Amino acid sequence: MTEYTAKNINFDYIFNEIKTITEYGSREKKKAKPFKRGQEAGLRKEFNKIRTFIESNKRREIIDVLKHVKNISETMNRVNGNQVLDEVELFEIKNFQIQTEKLGKMLKTISISDLKITLIPQIHELLDPAHEKLNTFYIYDEYSEKLKDIRNEKKQTEKNIALLKREIKEEVEKKYDIKFNIKSEAVINKSKKEKTDNLLKEKNLRVSGENYLNFIFKIRNNKEIDLLEKRLECLKNEEEEEEFKIRQNISREIKKYSDLINNNIQIIGKIDYLIARSNFAQKTHLSEPEIVSVLEIDIKAGRNLKLEKTMREKHKKYIPIDLSLRKNVVCITGANMGGKTVSLRMIGQISALAAYGMFVPCEYARLCLFDHIFISAGDDQSIEKGLSTFGAEIVNLKKALDYSEGRCLILIDELAGGTNPKEGYAITKAVVKYLKRKNCMTVLTTHYDNVADDSDVQNLQVAGLVLPDENDLIKINNIEQISKYMDYRLIEVKYKKDIPKDAIKIAKMAGINEEIISDAENYL
Amino acid sequence: MRLIEIIRKKNYYTISIVGLAKNAGKTVTLNYLIEEAKSTGLSIGITSTGRDGENLDVVTLTQKPLIFIAEGMYAATAKNALMFSDAKLEILETTGVYTPMGEVIIVRARQGGNIQIAGPVSSSDMKYVTRRLKHYGAQVVFIDGAIDRKAVSSPLITDACIIATGAVLSRDMRKVLEITAYSVECYTLKQADKNIQQVLQKQPKTCIIKNNGEVVVPDIETSITGGKKINELIDERTAYVFIKGAVTTSLLKNIGENKFLRGIKIIIEDGTKIFADIKLWNELRRKGLTVEALNAVDVIAVTLNPVSPQGYFFDSNLFKSETKKYLPGIKVIDVLSGGDFDG
To answer: Touching check for A178 and chain B: CB below 8 Å?
Structure first.
């Protein structure tokens, strides 16, 4: 399916509406490829999973867990590159592990064989050596006796320093009747000469600053404090070193399980993407299609999701369409404004969604898988690029024909409708003749008589305008009101029948000059 | 009453500290508050708007005290700042809130030590982070607000604020007092009455309200350029002028020229939106300008730092008593030399 086709059948719009929660899920979504002919069994399995999630009462709970799953891919890359993880990264792995375990438990009640989370109790133990059973992480004392000893000594040393300092401070404060501030400084006015002289001589004080008014004193460390502070520095360094070693060991240990962790990451991504599709299916009332291997498409009450949404926003009703495509070439004929192009896009949308493992917008669908899907429909973009309507469709047609050796779904809207009717008819007829021999399904809308006049071609016709009284056409103000009188159903036509003259009727209803209308009827 | 008791009594949860300049003593104030809270057994959370706690103040290259986080305290800080801290921290949550210094991480100190604090930048992120700190058990959160980032002290985000001022603002104490008084005045503007608040809730744009209740919305893009237009629309029937967003010097100048000035009330969003020249402000107030705010900020204290890093300093007792004269009714604390002994 080309980008052009995806856009034209609104597949890209729907795909964007599938919202995954985790980054693993969106990665899985990005990787999504269509199931091809021969992979029908795999696709059925995929649908099974979606159905299981739709029916499961655990879906809400799983979503809640997924919301807490963070992306640790970068961290895992660092583990595999033998890097030493920092505390925050270890915290993230621990949390990932906890969320994975929760998911694992929930998935036990859901019987999907290939979505099994591998529990790694070793990782849990590794990151919770104190058995605190908390979601948090810390380089716990339990990691090594050495760490514990260092920390104890550090604590004691800090205590001793504080105690000694307080003793000296209190002693000095009492002795000289001064007060230290929050920064442990005493600001003494120079005018109190006797006091400052004494303070300057005090061995426990040092001058930390001076200006024309004041001396600023601080406590001078005595030898004992100096020694303790040196020891404290050493202990801090030792602690850092020991913590580094511990982090190094944990990182190495985690590496041993990196395959298992990465496997869990992938499964979480798959679950996320499956749930996203289940949510979307439920929200937009999609149904599970039946996948067959014969070249057939049956759709009951099919809808084009994007168009349906647009209509709803305008408070209009979307009329679902039934169709049953049985032959290699199907022609949709009938009234203008009868929804032929809409039906064409709907066929493409349903086929593409099914192939991408999604439920489809209809009450029931039974269809086969295609190798390629093509659409050629009125395309403003190519015209902007400088191609004429005819030019654009010829380019698209060529692409489709190039692939027609495989099993393709080829959707063509008004082939050669923009060129002179004589040549247009000739090209259309020739293309139909060529494609009916191929193992493809071609659906085309056309106004040309006789294209469908072929027993190998299936002809579906829009039921057309239904008026209360044929002779009494109602004048309308807004062309969109036509939809009130339009019967969009597609009816299979077995024998050659006149194409209904709805175009003139519509022109009349829209209020085109009576003279022109009657003249036009004469020309017919 | 001690500051921390006021905070508790008023049931305040988030307190922002706003410095009127670099080195106005914001960090000393924070450390002081931490000490106070610790002594009453309150469990504390700290964070900041933007980076703080660096060893050297990058703007003036003066020594800056680090923030000491004691065992059991909570903090929210960016990952890169975390890596420079020597406190031993338990990681509680990675918040998904990002700053230029990395993701904001919520931690609890298992062993005390110094920490660098670099919290969320945006108001909504700050709200989220303080909520999470509360969730983990912080009973009061102090937010170190960076200079010129008054936004986070906005009343919508914190319950109250503390203004740190000091000798660094000017060698002239009078000037320091004037600037401080002006800031406090702006923050603590009277709250507009309920009726007018209700009217303005439906009218979130700069507008003029007449005394018969009629609302006129001038066609202006921002209040910054809209002063003239507002001025033209004020007449003898004008009761209120609501200014959405920044209140600038040029805007006030335009309104100040209006002859109906005495009869109207200017309503602004909150005190942090005033960016007007101090002289003009005082002059207009004398001429009878009345300004009220939709949201009042509770300034619970002003802290003083009598020492400037440029080497000069004020006599701390004089500084304190003068500040009290300028700011009657506001708690004034000299955090450096001993805190609030005398209330």
So the answer is: no
